[in-house]
Design brief:
single chain, MetI-like fold, two-stranded antiparallel sheet, 13 helices, globular
């Protein structure tokens, strides 16, 4: 006896799931996103639209100096992280040494560290009463040590490079793990030196990872607050520090919101630029 054919399930057309339209399932996450993120952001934008707020902030010298300092520190830290991260990733990935796997795993752990912890460690080493100055006074008998750069823009730059370099190394190590080592062996057998192998074989494969890591570091440096605060660099005022000063110290909330909106616009603009460049680079391949 042949089995009776089962009735076909009703066609939903990709619009409903068990009688419920699919757009209904999107309502809870959209509501949570709007309540947690979009609503506070809207309040900040609305507060920044106070009469004359943008004109007053843009005309102030403190805002212009903070904008220049923020861009300079973010650009310098990103460049330093790219160079140092690429060099260290090459060593970890291609130079065999005992403990290379432990170093790679430590990088993953390092990414979870808060930024102020790294700055605090640098203060213990290079601070006014840190180890370096203490060793100098013990050896020379001087009243104080010479290491005082940590409270300058160069100290902030050093702290940011120290903290954000692993954010460049992590995508690079992932890219190097997928690199065909036969290419490196063939280039080496044909007489290419290490520098040429890096330039012609490894670097082209690492460019997408470098772009991703560099973009991430650039955006994070633009919004970094803890490192600047914990170094105690009084002459270094970035946009996040200016927001803190306007809102907490001066209680000038419209001005603080204006600076915050400018900081958000720069970050979103850089992210959009990265997406456009990445999409075009992927299309050219």
């Amino acid at each position: 006896m042949s089995a009776l054919p089962l009735p076909a399930p009703p066609a939903t057309g990709g619009r409903e799931v068990r009688g419920v339209p699919r757009w209904v399932w999107a309502l809870p996450p959209v509501a949570v996103l709007g309540l947690v993120f979009l609503y506070p952001l809207g309040l900040v934008v609305r507060e920044s639209l106070a009469p004359g707020a943008y004109a007053d902030v843009f005309a102030s010298r403190a805002f212009r100096d903070a904008l220049v300092t923020t861009v300079w520190l973010a650009g310098g830290a990103t460049a330093g992280c790219l160079v140092l991260g690429f060099a260290l990733a090459l060593v970890v990935a291609f130079v065999p040494f005992p403990g290379s796997r432990a170093v790679a795993r430590f990088i993953d752990v390092f990414l979870s560290f808060p930024s102020f912890l790294i700055t605090l460690a640098l203060l213990f080493v290079y601070g006014t009463v840190g180890m370096a100055n203490g060793l100098w006074t013990d050896v020379t008998g001087a009243a104080e040590g010479p290491f005082r750069f940590l409270t300058t823009p160069w100290g902030v730059l050093l702290a940011e490079i120290t903290y954000f370099t692993p954010f460049v190394m992590r995508p690079l190590l992932a890219a190097f793990s997928q690199l065909d080592t036969a290419q490196v062996e063939v280039a080496s057998s044909l007489g290419a030196g290490p520098a040429r192998i890096v330039r012609r074989v490894i670097l082209p494969e690492a460019l997408p990872a470098l772009a991703a890591g560099g973009s991430l570091v650039l955006v994070m440096c633009l919004n970094e607050f803890g490192i600047v605060l914990f170094t105690g660099a009084k002459g270094v005022t970035t946009l996040p520090m200016l927001v803190y000063g306007k809102a907490i110290l001066e209680s000038d909330y419209p001005a603080a919101c204006v600076v915050a909106v400018v900081n958000i616009a720069i970050s979103v603009g850089l992210y959009a630029l990265y997406r456009v460049v990445n999409r075009r680079a992927g299309a050219q391949r």
